[in-house]
Amino acid sequence: MEKLSVKDIISKIAAEEIFEAVSSDYSFTIKIDDYVPYACAAIHNGHQFRKELWSNCLHTAYNRWYEEDPETKTMVATHPIVITGCDSRFEYDLNRAPEEAVFETAWGKQLWKEPLSETMKAKSLQKHTNFYKVTHALIETLERKFGFCTVYDMHSYNWKRWDREVPTWNLGTTNLDNKRFGNVIEDWRQSLSKIRLPNDIKSTSKINDTFYGNGYFLKYITKNFKNTLVLATEIAKVYCDEYEQVIYPEVVNAVEEELKTRIPKHALIVYAAFKR
């Protein structure tokens, strides 16, 4: 992996080069092993939190970890195209529009002892901007090359905070053209429901049961690219103890192994249905 500027990353994508890089500000990574009509994203995987913000933050490192999506990069790491956020969503949230990306409160609790200065906000928002410049370049290239592409937008959620039974997998589709994509969305839901997990963990899957696909990442791509399907795919945090902050590596590995075959298989089905 090499450290590259946003300009250099975009140039490599435009030239369809094979590369793996971390952005020069260390805010995201991107890997392209091959140009294929699908990509994976794990935008909430990151836990980095700028040190100059520590003393002003009211949330603990555990509070932040609890709301992040640890190991979602690991789950899709073997796929040819993977873009991943490195920073905590508590610094800036890549799944929110720029004007909402730097929190004042987070999950009902004030985040900062003192309001952030405009300078501090601008540092964070520049990284948000850089990520979306690269995202735009990536999807633009894939659409141009293939005519259609699919993005698997991987997230996780805290299932123990719900007071009802919730699915292992949730697909958020309210901002998609469900008339156009309904069949392939259902194909993906069915595939997820067949995943086998260790420790007697069942694999259920539903659409718009816990989350609805209202994230900015999905909205941004859907608004700007008419031939890209973004599948906001949430796994319940059955792969860790969300209260004790313990990761279960055997479960993470099982998810990775299942997605290793299920994602490309589904992506080919989508591509066959919608390529021009």
Automatic annotation (TrEMBL):
InterPro entries: N-FG_amidohydro. Pfam families: FGase (PF05013). It comes from the Bacteria. This is N-formylglutamate amidohydrolase. It comes from Seonamhaeicola maritimus.
